[in-house]
Write a structure and sequence with these properties.
alpha+beta, 2 domains, 18 helices, 11% strand
Length: 436
């Protein structure tokens, strides 16, 4: 992958991660409450995914091993868990009570394991952070995004957003201004087509989720989404239909690459690097593997939809704690220490994720990356999570996000094989089935 954060893995479901119903059933039958897990007695295991290069994991190991617990509290150890089969790694550990005390992981992982009774909710930790003032360092709304009817399933540590990128040199070649709304997007698309570039970056091939995330971002940009305010599947709405009609208009006019339906992440990266793609939604870490591209790749400002709406899709990567644990109190202290000191990742440019802390986003080193800074100042305030119109997140959403219904819907939109309304009706059926 071209991204330093493996976007295709941050939101995988249990089933998409290769777990069958038998494994899930086995998890459901386990009792997770206890005090014997989390590794050797007196040690809190912290499991982390490789959210960057090997240097990232080395920094994480140093950070955890540098933890000095208060008197009577256990120390901590660090272990990198690879993305390959990571859900099986976690679920097997939980089942055998060899799980970590705390970990990062897939974006919906905390919700899934909370449903199985394995997660220690973060309410007390958040209460502590409010008392000591650390809570105020978090960007507005990022902690609330992890709240459920039962409590906070985790605490956030990084953001994974879908902004709109553009190639300055290609726009200059086409002699057209950067779009500010959907109407000027049409104008730009026509001009870019004349110079052999596409104004709607897309890809829906094998293991490429950016295409379907773009479709959801388009819906959010028009004030829509896949769910209503109560968190119920509600895809067939006027706003969603209007957004998808815009997509199919671009397909019919040749503003979207006809081959995009089969493009992998690497294919899309190649299109961006060559200038064939000049504008569109993509991962925040799109250019992480592109080398020195100067200022030619840049983040645009959020576009206004037909009704004045602005927005895009955002995921919150989080840290979760587990009930089977040698010390819940010690784990909460460890996680707060980690959050307070994780600035080392951004100080040394070790991760492509966006920080959730104001102190990091306001640091001189972070502000040097003008694209990342713009994502936080302009895109994060208007971005919405997967539930979009609903603030309710659940384990069921993971099955939707990692399932086949959205991929098939995206491929239908990119080929124009079905009308938006009919495709959304099929999608709604798929979403409802996945949620259940």
């Amino acid at each position: 992958m071209s991204s330093s954060i493996p976007a295709g893995f941050t939101r995988r479901t249990l089933l998409a991660g290769g777990l069958g119903a038998g494994v899930i059933a086995a998890l459901a039958s386990c009792s997770f409450v206890g005090s014997g897990g989390g590794g050797a007695t007196g040690t809190l295991k912290f499991w982390d995914m490789p959210w960057g290069s090997a240097d990232y994991s080395a920094a994480g190991k140093k950070l955890i091993e540098g933890y000095s617990p208060a008197s009577g509290m256990p120390g901590a150890s660090y272990q990198t868990i690879q993305w390959n089969n990571f859900f099986q790694t976690f679920s097997s550990a939980i089942s055998s009570k060899t799980n970590p005390a705390a970990s990062t992981g897939g974006g919906f992982q905390a919700y899934q394991f909370a449903d199985q009774g394995a997660i220690h909710f973060a309410d007390d930790l958040i209460g502590t952070m409010k008392k000591d003032g650390f809570y105020d360092d978090f960007l507005p709304g990022v902690i609330d995004g992890l709240n459920t009817s039962e409590g906070y399933v985790a605490v956030p540590w990084a953001l994974d957003i879908r902004p709109m990128w553009y190639r300055k040199s290609v726009f200059d070649k086409a002699g057209v201004e950067l779009p500010t709304d959907w109407e000027s997007w049409r104008t730009a698309a026509a001009a870019l087509k004349k110079v052999g570039s596409y104004a709607f970056a897309a890809g829906a091939g094998a293991n490429n989720n950016v295409g379907m995330q773009t479709m959801i971002s388009m819906m959010i940009n028009n004030g829509g989404g896949l769910f209503n305010a109560d968190g119920e599947p509600d895809a067939v709405t006027e706003r969603n239909i209007e957004a998808m009609e815009f997509v199919q208009e671009f397909v019919s006019k040749g503003y979207i690459d006809p081959a995009a339906v089969s493009y992998t992440v690497d294919n899309v990266a190649t299109q961006w690097k060559s200038g064939a793609y000049a504008f569109g939604f993509d991962a925040a870490s799109l250019i992480a593997g592109f080398g020195d591209v100067g200022s030619d790749f840049a983040i645009g400002s959020p576009l206004a939809g037909p009704h004045g709406d602005k927005g895009t899709l955002i995921y919150q990567n989080n840290i979760m704690m587990y009930k089977n644990n040698p010390s819940i109190e010690g784990t909460e202290a460890l996680v707060e220490y980690y959050l307070k000191n994780m600035h080392v990742y951004w100080d040394n440019n070790l991760t492509g994720g966006l920080p959730v802390l104001k102190s990091i986003s306001e640091s001189a080193n972070f502000k040097k990356d003008v694209n990342a800074a713009k994502m936080l100042t302009e895109w994060q305030p208007v971005a919405k999570q997967f539930g979009a119109l609903s603030s309710k997140l659940s384990a069921g959403l993971a099955n939707v996000d990692g399932g086949s219904a959205l991929i098939q819907f995206t491929q239908t939109m990119l080929t124009g094989a079905e009308s938006p309304k009919a495709a959304l009706e099929t999608l709604q059926t798929g979403i409802s089935s996945a949620m259940n």
